[in-house]
Structures are given as structure tokens and as C-alpha cells.
Amino acid sequence: MASPDILDLPEKVRENLEKAGWVSSNSILMSSDHELRKLGNLTKEECELVRTRAAQSVLASGFISVTEAVCSLKEKWQRLSVGCSKLDRFLRGGVGVQGITEIAGESGSGKTQLCLQMALTVQYPVTYGGLSGGAVYICTEDAFPSRRLQELFCCFPPTFSEAQTNMNFGDSIFIEHIGDVESLKQCLLVRLPQLLTQRKVKLVVVDSIAGLFRSDYDPGDAVNRAKDLQVVGGQLHKLAEQFHLAVICVNQVTNVAGKKNNETQQQPVAALGLAWANMVTTRLQLCRTAHTVPDPHQPDHTVCVRTLQVVFAPNLPSDSCHFIVTKAGVFGIN
Predict the structure, then answer these.
(1) Which of 13, 30, 114, 261 is the one with CA 20 to 30 A from 82?
(2) Does the structure show a pLDDT above 70 at 314?
(3) Domains located in the chain, CATH noted
(4) E-only strand ranges, the chain
(5) Environment class of residue 63 by beta-carbon count within 10 Å: exposed (0-12), middle (13-18) or buried (19+)?
């Protein structure tokens, strides 16, 4: 049954939209013109009419109070805590629920550690920086680090009493192993939407996006790779908007020549080029440094100091901070 959003359209157009599964303004606006014309069997003029009517139906009509506007924006731009107050302050509250957040970095820089930690914090109550939902963790390179996750279950310090919430973190983390790009597309387009309608999931992690797209294509197949990246990125954006969840994609880095202090040096940049960068909302980059500090949880051990850099983001300046990875989790340091 079509929602009132598309009832104010010619009968033939409305029937074509219903057959294709577009029964709301949001689903229409999140589809491309190519999809509307091919799957909806619409002309160019009909596509323009459908988009105009859909846009008009989602625009708020009449006046609203400042309080209503603030509440609406707070919900839309909600943040997910990374589990450390220092890092949360640096990120102005954590990771956003709109768009795609990319965490790039060399091997061993702490990307997976940070994602595992957020698979726990997403289950926190909203008042404690969580989203009161579960997490989907899609692995494309290595097996899921279940041993490390079990260690975090025991050692990671929650900011609220687990006894008060009767929470079992492991029951709300769903794992999928993907071996090729086609399987990833099938997962994102079919299986994941089904899970999201059945369970309250508020975080999707793809670890990593580069693992598949760097290995499944020949060097001369850049066009098809770019198209598939757009499909994957577009679907992740669509799911983030539709289900109001955070999306994190882990990426590898590649070294390119760049100028630093008037010298040509190799600098790490996120992989997959502009085709993927244009799909990313926020890019964070991690790297290891040569410095070490005492482990606050094991004083007789030292841990490597790492850097978290904001490469670009809609709400953050380009800046960096330092953090460490310990047995108990990821923590920012001064």
C-alpha cells in the first residue's frame, strides 16, 4: 500500500512506482534517475515530476519552534562515543550517524581496535554516548578477532553499571565474512537490510573496504571498480539515512610522494582514490609513532603512541591527537 507521499501522482506513474517498490518519498529521493527510469519505467519528464512531488512532501510546512528545530537536529546529527572521553572531546562527541566515516591507516595502527571498541559503546544507553543498539561487523580480510573482543568484554571499562542494564554485549554483535565484491554487494543490498528491519542495529563496520577492491580488479579495470565503489558507498549512505545508524569503513593506505619541509617524502594516503573518497563523509587516519609510554593498566609494560588525524570532516577542523592501545581498549593521551 502506497503512503500518502506518492498518492498525488498520475495513476500510471503511481502504479509503476508501486510495482518497483517505491512507496515513500524517502525511497524515491534516495534512488538515482537511472533506477527510476529503468525499474520504474518512467520517462525523463515523469522522473522530474516524481522527484519534485517527493521533495515537496518531505519539506516541513508551516512554522516550527526553535526547541523543535534543535531537537530535530540533535537526533539527525547524533554522535556515537568511541569509548574514551579524551577522544570524544577531540571528535566533538564521537562518530556521526550520518554518512560514512572512514578510518584509514597502516597495518597495526589501531583501526580494528577502535572499531571493536565502538561495537561495545554503540550498545550503551544514549545518555552515556551510545545508541542503544547492536552492531554488524563485516570482515573482508582476516577472520573476525573474537579473542580480542572477548578480552574487551572483560577489561574494557564501561561508563555505566552493566548490572543496571542487564546487557550481554556479545548477543548484539552480528558477524559476516565476505570474500569478494559481488558477495559484499549482495550482503549490503539484500541480507543487511533484512537484518536491520528485524533487529535494532545502530552500527555497521566494514573491515576493510580496501581488502576487496584492491584485489578483485585488474589495473586496467578502473571504470568497473569505480562503478562498484559507487554502488557500495551509495547503499551504505542509504542504510545510514534510512535506519539512522553509524557506518564505519576501514581503509588501507598507500604511500605517495609529497612535499614536506621543502623535501620530497613518501606520505601515506588512504587507498582507492577519488572514486571512493567522494563517497566518504569523514576521514580519520591513524598511524604509529616511534614514541612509547608506560601502559596505565600494566605499569611494567610500555605501549606505542599512535596518532589520530582528522583529514576531512563536515564538522571538524583538520587536527590530530595521540592515543594508545592497551589490553583494556583505546584511550587518548595528553
Answers:
(1) 30
(2) yes
(3) 4-58 (1.10.150), 79-333 (3.40.50.300)
(4) 79-80, 95-96, 100-105, 134-139, 173-177, 201-207, 246-251, 253-260, 263-270, 282-295, 298-312, 320-326, 329-333
(5) exposed
